[in-house]
Amino acid sequence: MTTKKKLFIVSIAALLVILLLAWKNEQNAVKQKPLTQEQQQAKTPQEVLLRLKAGNQRFIEENTKEANFSNIIHASKGAQFPAAIILSCIDSRVPPEIVFDQALGNIFVSRVAGSVLNEDAIAGMEYSTHVIGAKLIVIMGHEDCGAIESACKGVKLGHITQLLAKITPAITQSQVEMPNASCAEARYIDLITKNNVLDVMKEIPQQSDIIRQDIADGKVMIVGAIYHVKNGNVEFLT
Ligand SMILES: [Zn+2]
Q: Looking at the domain assignment, is residue 107 inside a domain?
């Protein structure tokens, strides 16, 4: 091989390395960063909702931004200014940070089987919104929920019994909407899940003076959602 050819090959290799480094920098540049207080406060509840919808779209398209954890750990170590709190089921297929493609520091998450409400969860919502400044509360049920199905079947077992009792109003409502339906029917379980989400959305402002006032002042919004385990899509109910 002539010196000229060797020089040409080395030049091409060097160019490829430079292009690769530039591409890596570009990838790093689009990574999500934790919100600052200014960014959190500048957003309306509707804008926060759009952020979550966009994140879920990235998740479905396998185009997620979340990857460089060391940068995010460093950037979020001093404080947190999440824009939303998500109440979700404990189901292993429904981790809100992943399905909404949100960086460390950007959403609060409260998880209880069946996405049912309890006083401690309400306290977490009051803290997230009124104290820290989050704008959006999302109540997220999901398809194929074991807690909802167990409640439908009247399962009684240890502490599970009292948790499932909280789903009874949603079952009663669903019986009216789908008389004679069976707990073996997926669409009936999905209906109970949806009615449970709607019940929790109604209960929060009834039980929390703080959140009721913040909603009236336009500072906070509550929305319902269903996560579809079949395709990763979060369907918002409002
Ligand atoms: Zn569940």
A: yes
Domain count, the chain: 1
| 78 Cα to the center of ligand 1, angstroms | 33
Cα of 4 vs centre of ligand 1, distance in Å, is 66
Q: Is 15 a domain residue?
A: no
Alpha carbon distance 169, 166 (integer Å): 7
Answer yes or no: is pLDDT of 24 > 70.
no
pLDDT digits (tens, 9 = 90+) for 120-158: 999 999 999 999 999 999 999 999 999 999 999 999 999
Could you give the CA distance from residue 167 to residue 197 in angstroms, rounded to a whole number?
10
What is the average pLDDT across 172-196?
97
Report the C-alpha gap between 8 and 119 in whole angstroms: 70
What are the strands of the beta sheet with 234-236, ordered from one edge?
107-111, 84-88, 136-142, 221-227, 234-236
Q: Which domain holds residue 229?
A: 37-236
